[in-house]
## 1
Amino acid sequence: MRVPLSWLKEFVDITLQPDDLAELMTRSGLEVDAVEKIGVDGSELPWDTEKILTCNILEVSQHPNADRLVLALVDYGAEQPHTVVTGAPNLYQYRGLGRLPHPLRSVFAKEGAELYDGHAEGKVKVKLKGRPVRGVMSDAMLCSEKELGLSEEHEGILLLPADAPIGLPLCQYLGDVVFEISILPNTARCLSILGVAREIAALTGTPLRMPDFIIEATGPSINDRAQVTVENPELCPRFTATLIEGVSAGTSPLWMQRRLTMAGMRPINTIVDISNYVMLELGQPNHTFDADRVTEQHLVVRLAQADEKLITLDGKEHTLTSDRLLVCDPKQALALAGVMGGESSEVSETTTRILLEMAVWEPRQIRRTAGALKMRSEASRRFERGVDIGLVPLAQRRALGLIQQLAGGIIAAGMVDSNPDPWKTPIIDLTPREVQRILGLVLSAEEIARLLTPLGFTCELAADAHGPLVRVQVPSYRWDVSLTADLCEEVARMYGYDRLPMTMLSDELPAQRSIPEIEREQKVRDLLVGAGMLEAITYSLTDMASVAKLASHEADASQFLRLLNPLTTEREYMRRSVLPTLIEALAENLNERERVLLFEIGRVYLRHAGELLPEEPRRLALAMAGARSARSWLGNDEALDFFDLKGAIELILERLGITNARFVRLTDDSRFHPVRAAVLELVAAPARGKGQPEPAAVRAGVLGELHPEVSERFGIKKARVLVAELELDVLIGAAQAPRYTPISRFPATSQDLSILVPHDVPADRVAATIRKYAGSELEKLTLIDLYEGERIERGKRSMTYSLLFRAQTRTLSDTDLTKVRAKIIKGLEFDVGAVLRG
């Protein structure tokens, strides 16, 4: 919420500097996010106190050498008036009239003043310099709103009210400070200037001044001229209506427009501006109906009929359900209660009779309506947090008084007030013992009463069998206070959070215990970030359209958990795979950059028939596309391929100590390229002997290049998109704690081994067999050559491995290596049918 300092000063005297006041409010629980300064010291464009002044235009004459320029004779408080050359179109009407018979106030800037360039895009600062303009010296100017930084308006000069002083520094007249305050749910009482002023008055010990609520209601009684019927009082605890006739809607005065603008609202006309002004000032939303467009001036509060139509002020037609609350007349719906008015009874330029409505609505009803129809408004924002039921008649008088003052009119005597359950003041007994129990503060009953009274609570000292207490009466504007804990919070705010005593723990902290699962998950994150990937966090909710992009056969809604009340249709089902949302994130990022590498760790939700709760395994998903390395002068623009993805996964396996992993070709998954995809499996130790069954394997995930058609459905134009989805729980469960191996002081010896292997034997099985027969002295095994073709027997392929041997206790001799080599060759022949290549 934006709160102008000048507006606050109408309610409470403030002597603190703006930054100090912001600090005070923040320390008391009213969070000030920013302090915006307009025209004063510290602002982006401070208005010079000697060079930018208020002035009066005495006379406007035609420029002798230019049709679109005029000469304005300006009184800015100096001994002699000054002539200003200007092309402001809103001064043309005064040409040739001689001395103006009425005040015409504006803003005068002397040479040397710093302003914004009114003809430049954005905010470009310039310093005013004198120069001849068509033969007439121009060393001063009359300023537009844009040149002063007040708005983007530059069609004419800024015209001030007729009673504006002459020769006053503009920073003293229009300069201001606006506080940007974050209104949290527990500070909803401060959604108004009055609410914030109450807080400041209490914190600074300064009296609070209320606005003038006195009106002259000289018209006939409203009782025979307007009527209110509330069919659902539980949804509308209070509803009031007043009538004012003979109004003339026009343009609201500058002071009101300025305050609305600084508060973040756009001025429209007198009636609408007053309605918004009262809402911002007092926190009471209201609505003005054109009385002549309300049948029989009879307002009815009722629930909508099924499929009833209403066109709101924004021009949109809404088809309503039977749980939406309306304000109607006997013939039609007029407004969506507490959210937005309807077009049929809108106040226009021809309106002369206004029916002014103010009400209090049940907060949950307004919250549901505004959320369902996506119509959050300033009014609904206040109603759904709660408003002061006791302020309604005062707000009525305040609005009527402003309308009468600025738009004329005769106010009908009286007010129609539907208030079937009047406010009953809650009384809460607060004891010093309770304050000490909750806050740790030792305060007397008198001190507690002294802290609560400035906030508007009526405090009476009393006692019970256990000792003294404070009997607190809660005012209607503190509807958020209903428990002793609420009062303790107010005591803490007034005492000062920074003054609360600090109590140290009286016991030792328990020993920190290691949680291997969490540590290994974090290790996977660190590894992938170290490999140059970025972590993404996507929604756990998706829709069938997103799932179908990846695999149409998986878009079966019956297999997914569906939310009963989804916020949007795009977030309706709990995901069964991380890939769809991660690939969408990849596609969005590829629109902005050439190379993207993402990963995500998240849960999926697998529904099982007959089970109430789903299984929620953790998955690790990877997605990458683009060049292998970032663009540089080296010119390396090779695209990422399957082996880059496989390398990232092998890094994880290596660092987690998983040595029983293998990659098996995947050929039956429509999501992936037919020959560039694999299944990651964790296998048991292979059985010894030729013809033995394959060892048992656990599927740990899939990886590969996306099928081009899938990439196209996601709108990705890269030739290759690599993705993987791994079962993180399986990988973490198979991880081994790192073991320390002493560094041998003896030299290593390397040998190459070339063998012919049947074509259907995978390379990882060959490598596992070599390690099995080589023993513990094999330090490193690397496949350095793979060949099949000419001079190689059909159905076989040549594989050459580099073997590095090292012992811990001695230097290996040629005899040792010959024995190991023979053992390896015999084992390869026995287990996989491989023979030494001649």
## 2
Amino acid sequence: MRIFSIFFFLFPCSIAFAQLSENFSDGDFSNNPAWSGDATSFTINAGQLQSNGPNATATISLSTPNTRFSNTEWDFYVNLAFSPSDANHARIYLMSDQADLHAPTLNGYFIRFGENGSADGIDLWKQQGTTLTKIVDGLPGTVAINPAVRVRVIRDLEGNWQVWADAIGGTDFSLQGSTKDNAVQETSFFGVSCIHTTTNRQKFFFDDFQITEAPIALVGVTAIQSTQIKIQFSKSVELSSAQDVSNYELDNGLTVVQATQESAPAQVRLTLGSPMAENIVYTLKVNNVQGADASVIIPNSVSTFTYTAPVNSNDLIITEIFADETPAVGLPVIEFVEIYNRTNHNISLHGLRFSDDGSSTAFPDSVIRPKEYVILCSHASVNAFASFGKVIGLASFSLNNSGETLGLQNAPGQLIFSVTYSDTWYKSSVKQEGGWSLEMIDTNNPCGEAGNWVASENAKGGTPGKANSVAAAKPDLTPPQLLRVEVVSPLQLKVVFDEKLDSLSTTHLSSYQLDKGATIISTAVISPQFRQVLLSLNPGLSEKTTYTLSLNGLTDCNGNLIAANTQSVFVLPQVGDSADVVLNEVLFNPHTGGVDFVEIYNRSAKYVTLKDWQLANVADGIVANAKAITTDDQVIAPGQYYALATNSALLKSHYPKSKEENFLVMASLPSYSDASGTVVLLNPVNKLLDRFDYNEDWHFPLIRDKSGVSLERISFDSKANDPAGWHSAATTEDYATPGYRNSQFQLPTANAGGVAIDPRVFTPDEDGLQDFTTLSYAFAKGGNVANIRVFDVRGREVKLLAQNQTLGTEGYFRWDGTDNRGEKVRTGYYVVYVELFDLHGQTQVFKEKVVVGAKF
């Protein structure tokens, strides 16, 4: 028996791996290394491990410690003296996170020998608890009858697996299959398992277990041009052997005229003497190539590949989308998408894929002729569209009625076309209900989005398989516009544009300039919309510093150049807390056909990010129905307002003076009752930042029709739930001020102590100018109880503002010029009479004069 040794290798990730060598020559498996498990069910016979299971149907196993799995080679010999089946088969556990190979929670990989029928192959399986998945289906029949095979399994650093075998137990290995799988990333044990019936309990034999660092291996081959292919090896190659053309052999009449090691040291580029043909399966055989570590590739290592002429951006496009098929208008009640070949040459669909938000599916091998339209639908729906033109059925096909992103990828996986459609693109409330397709207007403007799509005008509801009914010239002549700069982190910015960009133009660092010492070190455009570019910085941004980003040289998808020196100013946002941002205005009873809005205001000196903040209401006494304000890195600056609503156009139409630049559109708002309710402002972790329990009775009593009238906060410092701190918006502002300073805003009155009135003359006419007066108080101690009355010059009480109300140390009351019946008092002089009682029975009296005036 060989010694089970621990070696330490230096890898980029600095992980130490174990290595196993066991041929049972010492006649023992109890130590050096120690195997654990069903020890009484195994024995050593002539230097081999032999099963000796119970005289019954059983599963027996042994395992030994091993932690090596990355860039690893497993070698072993297996002899089964019977024809294996489901009831009688062997497993070699290459990786297991448990010593007990019977454990139902085991995670790992194993090679299985035996299955029902005569197609038994050497298969690689993945085990995740009780879920078993075959990931390599070995060559059929290799181990069908009394197999005595030698197996070699290789796994590289990236999780690429190769299974090799010599079916007669020698070392002339042939590839059984390969795959890539990284689902299990941990191992502690290697082992054997035998599933047997009574007659085969002693007919399993194993020998020559070796676990070592993997030699260089052939990972894959890719055709990158008609006369060039790229080989990916599992590790860096030794230069002379890698560039020796005699080490490479191709079929179908192709020859290798040059081999060049790439800058990536594990890749070699082969140049061919003649071009490859499309859609032919080629085989490359590699011999004698060595790794930089002096390991030699397995003899006759092979990989197959095909060549497909590249499909470039917008060569193949989507021109019609039928997502909502009901109610029927004239087309089959079945979803479809139409694609179109814009080029003057055939396009092979081999290797191309169609994708939506939830899935991606491969096209079947087919060819689309120049200027040809093709209908895509599910396999089951092909016959329904046969009369309309060429149809291709896809294995996975489903469209969202409201919209999603659809894409086409070429064989190398590059996105060649995408469209993010929406049901708003119909531009018809009737057709939006279903039965009509969306059609592209100008196929020469494939980057055009909402403006280049509209509902079909064909009487049947669409034009599958032919030119669109809405076809017209609609070129894009407008340069891209910068919408905003979002600060993702101190080291990353997101630059957002109004349309798709040419992805190549976004890669040039010279197109972006930052001031204040921040430097851009890399760019990345976000696919598939291509409207956002991530900029990585070093050094990063500093707080409370205003930066300017300047843009030049960027082009949209159609080649329009952005305006020279386009700029945006931004800052590194900070986390907002309670009282930083407050509820400032609420419209809970809008005009007929209008929308609610909630206005917030940043009263702090911080640039606060609103990402993932929420508006909510209260249901059954609990904060509920939270709705995200924005999921973007939207910033509210010091002193800035934001009016939150679901429709900015409606809000602007009802309040023409409003500031659209301070509108923030939400997908939906919580419901707010017209009579009373609660508005709640929450941060991303549901901390309550502000709460306003409103009531329509808080409106100015003289307003008869309260629809379309907002309640405004009088002061940012006032308590949110104090009725004296809110007032109806002024008539001069159309009864609301979304996005700008409140019409009833008042600066807090300075009060050094006692009671003060401000203003002493007011005109309660809802014009936004001194519509009410404020009685403020400030006392050294709290606990005072107040009665506050307003008397006319004849000494008659006209308004009771407070009765036996406990006061704090400071605060205020508001009088809007109405009497106890809610009617406006006459112009003239009035006295505000304040009686205070403390806990000791002491009484204080304050009298303040005030004038109710009127404008003429």
## 3
Amino acid sequence: ICWGIYPQLEPPRAARGIVADLVGLEPAPQVLEEKAEAPAPAAQKRMAAAPARSPAEGAAEKADGLKEKTALTQDPKALIQTGPGLPTWSWRAIAMKWNGPVGRSQEVRLWLISPAVNLILAFLRVLLLALLIFRMLDIRHWKERGRSLNLTAAVLFVLLSLPQGVNADTSGSSFPPPELLQQLQDRLLELPDCLPDCAESPGMEVDLTAERLRVQFLIHAATETAVPLPGNTRAWLPETVLLDDQPADGLMRDKDGLLWMLIPAGVHNVTLVGKAPAGDAFQLPLPLRPHQAKVGSPGWDVQGLHPDGQVEASIQLTRQRKEDSRTEDWTGSALPPFLHLERELSLGLNWQVFTTVRRATPTGTPVVAAVPLLAGESVTTSGIRVADGKALINMEPGISEIKWNSTLERQPEIRLQATSGDGGVSWSETWILDASPIWHCALAGIPVIHLQDRAGFLKPQWQPWPGESVTITVTRPEAIPGQVVTIDDARLQLVPGERFNKESLVLTIRTSQGGQHSVTLPQDANLQQVQINGKTQPIKQQGRAVIVPLQPGAQNVSLEWHQDREASVLTVGPEVAVGGPEQHAVNANVTFNMEHNRWILWAWGPRLGPAVLFWSYLLIVILAAVGLGKIPWTPLKTHHWLLLGLGLTQVEPLVAIMIVGWLLALGLRDQYSLPDGSAFFNLTQLLLVAWTMAAMGGLYLAIEKGLLGIPNMQIAGNGSSDFVLHWTQDRIGSTMPQPWALSLPMFVYRIMMLVWALWLALALLRWLNWGWQCFSKGGLWRKVSLRQVKQRPGGHSEA
């Protein structure tokens, strides 16, 4: 019922699965749930998807960076819509799962009820539960059941009054404990301190002939460890492995083709012998790199060995060509040069063309060619000569690629025509279109072979045959009117004071272009400070308006002002407009930091806000007082129970139940006589004494909290507490919500609790007198008599 009256108190729960089991289908569950992912900037996506480049291609990286900047440059005059703000709150999520495949046309229908219907259902649930308990107790037959029912009621009150016991651990203990076993296991499996450098090789010698390869290297091992040997299955494996001139044991080959050997602790000499690999060149990998190496290889060229003896991770060995061997002369049969021409049209604020010419045939011969330019293209890269609308390039024998950049005049139509080459140089072409979203391109001609690049961006690509063409018609769509300023978060804070209120407003504003933003303050506000992104700005108040300058992007705007306050029991949020009449905001938060000398009675505002649970608790106290007043075996009437319950609202409910149960237990003690057994009588008396002492302590705690403590109004919901009231509304107009709080001075609460304490002192004198009479009825204590057994002369006994 509490969640029905105050929905904001219901804790958000994790997603619960609603499973529709399909008969005969048992595939992996499919979840009909999509998570929105915030798109990263386009440039970051393209950089993340681009392959790694070598240092030798630094110039190409700079050119690619220029392409990204050109295509993604934002028009400073464009009215880019910032869109509506999105609320950041979240409540309950329901994941719907099926055990079988789900079609695209599958529909899900949800039946939702309003908060009002939910409130009615909550009351009905509680009412039906109360009727069920009433029916099970069957109060009409209480008098007939007599003493057994009274004893059951007394035991029930004892169980409700006493604090919860500590569950004893009855599980049997075993030795040794799991902690000791885990410690012993860790000690047995502890790795050596030298790992991963338990072995190293100070030196290695390699002897290579035309038929055989012999590797000998020294290994120092700090402990018994496995060491990878030179070579692998893809390069070379030894036929014989010797450890200290003895055949080695403990060899193993892993899944990567490396050969491992178990080396005992100490200094050892490892020898590997095998046939020389076939072919003119091979590599010898060195997983365990030695500090020094010496290679004796007549007739072989060695790479990877430094002059000072240091070695790389692998050694490259290449056979030397004999002087008397004949070599073919490829000069007379050299292939004619063939090029690949790539044009990338970047249509942003400025139109540019990035051209790359790559050599497709081997290097070694110079290439001179004239590449035709597009209509309206002007080369901007230095070193590229232009004549008769063609770019004259000259590739030296060792050059394989030439790049240049050009500007392109804006024109409604771009025509690309493929040619077969120029003179004795032939080439193939690739065209790429990279157009900014501000342009609309209509394509005509040969079909596109790739519509997107590897990163998923729209970049049409063509690879034409000679004579084929493509026509690109370019238009700029008109911008659709929309908001260019979005308020993603608005936080209003009120700190009441004796003479004036201190109020502050923090806005998170996102805008696509610079400008001015107006914030309207309350009528008698006195502006104190304005900050933008944490920096104080010299901005003055113009009547009720405060004009704040904005820059493109996101920024935090903070305003602080004072407002005169008149003494009143009602605290109302200030009237603040965060924007113009047509602007809206999301994630509006209003916080009241109330004074500690105020007694909060009620709070009202948006639904997701604080709830004063005291009044619901008070309703339960009133109902309980009416019910307890009908019980005849106590001198307390309905008004007595009500006054007592009002004071006990400041302590824990368990303490209040204990005090009420104490009074009822005394009444039961007077109403019904105890059994004749002395043990049960004395145990009941001891229980009543302990219960009386606990009840006196509970009453003392209630008086202390009432006279010296803070009023426990049980304020909760949306992060609220006794002196902090917090409201949240997901979407608002241009005006912030104006919640209010009803409060009284703290001395009013103190006077009321003092009056209650005096009444309790007078009433407690009468209750204690009545309680003593109930306690002493039938005696305070019964003597325990022991039977004496006497022996008869015949061996028999009598009592």
